[in-house]
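Before a colleague's protein record goes any further, I have to sign it off. What it holds is a sequence and that sequence's fold in token form. Would you go through it and say whether the fold makes sense for this chain? The record follows directly below this note.
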Amino acid sequence: MSRRIALVVGTSTGGVGKHVLSLGTGLARRGHRVAVLGPAESDRALGFTEAGLRFFPVRIGASPTATDPTAVLKLRTMLKEADTVHAHGIRAGALCSLAGVRPLVVTAHNAPPPLVGPLSVVYPALEKVVAHRADVVLGVSGDLVRRLRAAGASGARPAVVAAPTTGTPYKGREATRADLAVLPERPLVLTIARLAEQKGLDTLLAAAPAISDRRPEPVMAIAGDGPLWGELHDSAAELKADVRMLGHRTDVADLLAAADVFCLTSLWEGPSLVIMEALRAGLPVVSTRVGGIPDLYSDTVLLVPPGDPTAFAREVGRVLDDPELAADLRARSVEAAASLPTEEDAVEAALTTYKTVERK
């Protein structure tokens, strides 16, 4: 049976938006009528329209604004004929809840921002709105599920999220390293992240001199863009370490093939789509112990406390200096990758959830 499914998303150019794009195209392939609602900039960044999905602009920012009442009225009007509304993010979920749209599924994708000032009141209030008004509430990590249950969503449960495939490397390891001017004997330490505060890249830069203090000297590459580009670029240029800011890249599969170690220094992550990509590439991974990471990958990756550059440098150094450890971590990555959820798994899980709330 074909359904009219509306996916609602806030401002996102990262993992949340990519998941919504993957879910939307997967649902459309199965014959469902899919519409995506969200900020126009999200469509420009992620290409919902380009992917063949119907997109309708609605201003849903990262924090409450004076335009929220207008967004609520717009959502109420535009979503009244949908068979299922699936909002992604607490902000999008709360606005849909206030609009009274039903049936409503909400997936929480991120931990709350630092709760200071007005946010210390507003964000928990939005969580309670979602917890009490949505038909189903999902969380992408165990800590989010527990948080939603504490807010009143007694039936909150884990969401199935899968990293879109990065495809087959086009150039391959040697050619990509040559393009990056990385000599064959030099290890390549790779990070792929949005350059935003959540990703903790100041920790990576603080760890860089210690990581680089070995021979042959490693090259540290950071791929991605974002609001902290200028600040991080200037900081990297002052280090006594070979740190290269690669900017936005479309050759993720090639970068992963070229790397020797993958690093993630985030202050919070859900299931981390980029770790999924690194595991599929068979890379050793060093990550901070945050969010959903320890629940999902504690037996696969090396974990360190967030905001601890000394510990992070030590663990990356262990991988670089110990070929047996690196080989063991590669084997663990390959094994873990075989059991990761696929994009089709995520679509099937979403449809199963929709069936539980569909109108009779």
Notes: The two ends are 13 Å apart (CA to CA). The CA atoms of residues 11 and 61 lie 6 Å apart.
